[in-house]
Description:
By secondary structure, the protein is α+β, with helices and mostly antiparallel strands. The chain has helices at residues 4-29, 33-39, 41-45, 48-57, 72-80, 96-105, 125-133, 139-163, 169-174, 176-186, 193-206, 213-239, 245-254, 261-290, 299-305, 310-320, 352-355, 391-408, 438-442, and strands at 61-62, 67-69, 84-85, 166-168, 326-331, 335-337, 340-342, 347-351, 413-414, 419-420, 429-431, 433-435. Helix content is 55%, strand content 8%. The longest helix is centred in the middle third of the chain and has 30 residues, at 261-290. The protein starts with a helix and ends with a helix.
Amino acid sequence: MPGVGDARQALRWGLRHGLVRRTLLRKMRDGDLSAQLMFDREMIADPFPHYDVLREQGRLVDNGLVLNTAHHDIATAVLRSPDFGVVGGPSGQAPAAVRFAVRAAGRGPVGPVEPPSMLAVDPPDHTRFRKLVTGAFSARAVTALRSRTEEVAAELLDEMAARGHNADLVTDYASLLPATVIAEMLGAPVEMRRQFLEWGAGGAASLDTGLPYREFRRSEQQLEAMQNWMLGHFDHIRRHPGDTILSALVHAHAEEGRLTEDEVASIAILLLAAGFETTVNLIGNGAALLDDHPDHPDQLALLRAEPARWGNAVEEILRHDSPVQRTGRFAGRDTEVAGEHVRAGQVVLVLLGGANRDPAVFTDPGRFDITRENADDHLAFSSGIHYCLGAALAKMEGEVALRALFDRFPDLTLNGPPHRRPTRVLRGYDAMPVRLSSATVDA
């Protein structure tokens, strides 16, 4: 017989996902494009033509639930405007629906979409949390990490070659490289990196709106397991302090009183999971785009002839096939953005993947072109105060990983169709079978 915990979990699902899911499914059947982009599998697999249609429908398209935009200028203005906030709202002033859901259903495990997650709070809490960890992701810190990232890439490629001609690029490489780097940065055990990846899948799923109950339950189970492990790891850190980000967070909680335990756990889990989720997608998406793609077969050859272009190539990958496709903001007051009026309380769904192919900003936006001069005008890492803390790290890891991969295996080819992960906010692959260069493996 279900217990109280099961009942409260079901209530959390109903309040956070069930009601929205039913509404969106109804809208999808009525032909609403925004809803179709969330549930139609064919559209999720290739959303870009549909972003174009939505963009043509208007600058802010109201479907009765949210305002949708695939326009670069509006997306940028919304993300940078102090008149908009994230889901959790200004500290202590979360929307009434969020406060009601927490009171009625109780808090589930610490996750990325609810306070005190940095993704779900605005200043002053967001500012307070970010200041504690921003130094670890500075340009200087990322530069210092490059040589270690190159070592990790070489080690993983050696292991792939030792296993034979066939490999899975995501499982054997794209996921393990950033998981190793972030684990070492945080002082977490590297031998647990595959477990971290499994738990991280729960965090990735929780970003999507309208989850089926089974997926919501699995996501909460994975997040709870990660939280329980992290709390136990904090005890280890207290006994064996070191010079790591997690040690600094635990110190801020235990001795300085600047963080509650929930805040420490939330920041630590977000840093761990976000430290690999975006980069896994960046590496996988980049490999698929560069692997003798019939639509642009010359790009990899150009990189081999002019390796100085690798940095811009990563920017173009991020623009062309963004690892994060959407984010949302709500208006805290009546406001105007890029000439468009938004009423207080309205939610704007910013379609980052669509904004990154806005023809008003990018010439021939559907073409993958590593020589594109303004490729770095993309919004793949958001903008404004919530600009991705680890953007520089992800770009560095993507460049190192892809360059090392194609240098080591110059004849790398897909060995079957890659499989897209089912998430809608995050876009990437969860499987990519490849055949390695025979000469390199046999050497």
